[in-house]
Backbone:
């Protein structure tokens, strides 16, 4: 889940947190970003910081060129199978009451299978989407979307390899982006919004999902 606000840093001004500058005026350490999060610091990120928590979590805090006044915080890995995911959920639950006026920038809905059923893959491909593989991830995109889409991404990857699990697991992920939510706040996110997401998932994949908010 990603959230946007004018000044997120105010939530982390205590002894429980340290904010490390990675890309700001006079500071540029892209290797720190890639080492910490396993991905490059892209050009559209004009400011980047790492929030270090007292229990060992590292959380990215960014500003994008498209909206420099907004800081975006990313809670990636909430649906993992490790201790970090549990700690991240606990932190998010603790912060939710203070984040009610933050804008929804992204919500990922994950479906895990030992093997994704063929009927789901067939439905994805017959709903106007074609598979496009990049590294270890297969994306399902329409011809118009090409490489980017500000509304929704659909992708699958091997979760067993990513998290070094003992049992085989594939993940099908629906990434709902900021344009999908049309600038709503966390406070405004309600059952109607969740039902719309469930209907979108069913439309593209035939999966009957039940989205339960983290609280």
Residues:
């Amino acid at each position: 889940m990603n959230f946007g606000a004018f000044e997120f840093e105010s939530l982390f001004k205590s002894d429980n947190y340290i904010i490390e500058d990675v890309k700001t005026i006079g500071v540029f350490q892209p290797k720190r970003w890639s080492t910490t999060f396993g991905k490059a610091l892209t050009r559209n990120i004009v400011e980047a910081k790492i929030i270090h928590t007292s229990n060992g979590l590292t959380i990215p805090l960014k500003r994008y060129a498209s909206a420099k006044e907004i800081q975006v915080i990313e809670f990636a890995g909430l649906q993992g199978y490790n201790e970090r995911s549990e700690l991240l959920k606990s932190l998010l639950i603790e912060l939710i009451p203070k984040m009610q006026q933050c804008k929804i920038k992204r919500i990922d809905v994950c479906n895990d299978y030992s093997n994704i059923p063929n009927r789901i893959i067939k439905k994805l491909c017959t709903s106007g989407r074609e598979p496009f593989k990049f590294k270890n991830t297969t994306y399902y995109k329409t011809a118009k979307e090409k490489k980017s889409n500000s509304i929704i991404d659909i992708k699958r990857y091997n979760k067993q390899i990513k998290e070094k699990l003992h049992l085989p697991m594939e993940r099908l992920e629906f990434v709902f982006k900021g344009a999908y939510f049309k600038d709503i706040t966390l406070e405004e996110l309600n059952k109607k919004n969740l039902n719309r997401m469930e209907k979108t998932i069913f439309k593209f994949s035939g999966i009957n999902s039940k989205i339960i908010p983290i609280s």
